[in-house]
Amino acid sequence: MAARVGIVGAGPVGVVAAIACARKGMQVALFEAEREIDHSPRAATTHPSTLEMLAELGLLEEFQSLGLVARYFQFWDGATKTLVAEFDHGVLRGETPYPFVVQTEQHKLSELGLRRLATMPNVELRLGTSVTDLAQDAKDVRVTTQGAERLVFDYVIGCDGGRSTVRKCLDIEFEGYTWPERFLVLTTLFDFQAALGCCPRSYISDPEEWTNLFKWSRTGTSIACTSAWRNLSARAGCSLRGTQHTSTTRSGASA
Ligand SMILES: Cc1cc2nc3c(=O)[nH]c(=O)nc-3n(C[C@H](O)[C@H](O)[C@H](O)COP(=O)(O)OP(=O)(O)OC[C@H]3O[C@@H](n4cnc5c(N)ncnc54)[C@H](O)[C@@H]3O)c2cc1C
Predict the structure, then answer these.
(1) pTM for the structure as a whole
(2) Which 8-state DSSP code applies to residue 96?
């Protein structure tokens, strides 16, 4: 009998894990607490080793068509606005078939993965279904959903993010620490490449206030513009926790 696998969370990790299991012939149920994938700005850069994995799963062509291919990345000095170093993924040619990164918003990977999963007969998609409890013994794993449904699986994969319910139910520690800085993430049509001369992935170093700039392409928008920038900044000494994000289409933002 095919293994029954429950996957909790339809972020990029859960969706990709679900596709990998389903392609191996497993019986997959994917639980996602929200009814729709969260569009808040988060990951924007996907590196060569991940691109190799997406290619193996047959997802790369579509994923790449939704993003920008970026071969170079740069480090800048914020105070003097001068280029410190430029790195070229091209030196990896021969090591990887993808000597570049793809820049796009992470929700596009989740959404294209969900579209793919919807076509697979051995997959059940449970959007809007939160997992509230989980217990395991040597034989199987029992999952409870917020609707008090009880389901049994051979395996459960917890992909439910930093505050994972699966992790807490299994009493697994969250190792590491939270950086004591508050980030501002904004999306703008302001063209940093034209203004600064930087490349589509640029890290601006500064002891007081650093910034990362990522260009990515806009799709499915009525705005007559094909690309936008993600600007992620933090100021030293600002010790509030968490991430604040905002989106703007104004073109007057400054670097
Ligand atoms: C501003 C910012 C920029 C970033 N930039 C990058 C980058 O450039 N490159 C990079 O690699 N990473 C980046 N990251 C990190 C990246 O976003 C995360 O590593 C990634 O989201 C983790 O994916 P995930 O699928 O594990 O979890 P998540 O994306 O957090 O998804 C978890 C999912 O589980 C669902 N869920 C939670 N609890 C339950 C439950 N009980 N039952 C059912 N569903 C549940 C949630 O609704 C959510 O959809 C960035 C993060 C931030 C905040």
Answers:
(1) 0.89
(2) B
Does residue 105 contact residue 232 with C-beta atoms inside 8 Å? no
The CA 253 to ligand 1 mean position distance, Å, reads: 27
CA 38 to ligand 1: nearest atom:
49
Span between the terminal Cα atoms of the chain, in Å: 57
Residue corresponding to tokens 């339809």: 10
| Average pLDDT taken over every residue of the chain | 89
Q: Scanning the structure block, which residue is given the tokens 């429950």?
A: 6
d(CA 5, CA 27): 6
DSSP 6-58: EEE--SHHHHHHHHHHHHTT-EEEEEESSSS---SS---EE-HHHHHHHHHTT
Cα–Cα distance measured from residue 209 to residue 123, given in angstroms and rounded to the nearest whole number:
46
- Which residue carries 């078939």 as its tokens? 97
Residues 6+ apart with CB under 8 A from 7: 14, 17, 18, 21, 28, 29, 30, 31, 156, 157, 159
Q: How far away, in angstroms, is 148 Cα from ligand 1 center?
A: 25
Q: Which residues line ligand 1 (CB under 6 A)?
A: 8-14, 31-34, 38, 42-45, 106, 130-131, 159-161, 165, 185, 232, 243
Nearest residue (CA) to ligand 1, atom 22? 161
Residue type, 26: M
Summarize pLDDT for 98-134 with one digit per residue, the tens: 999 999 999 999 999 999 999 999 999 999 999 999 9
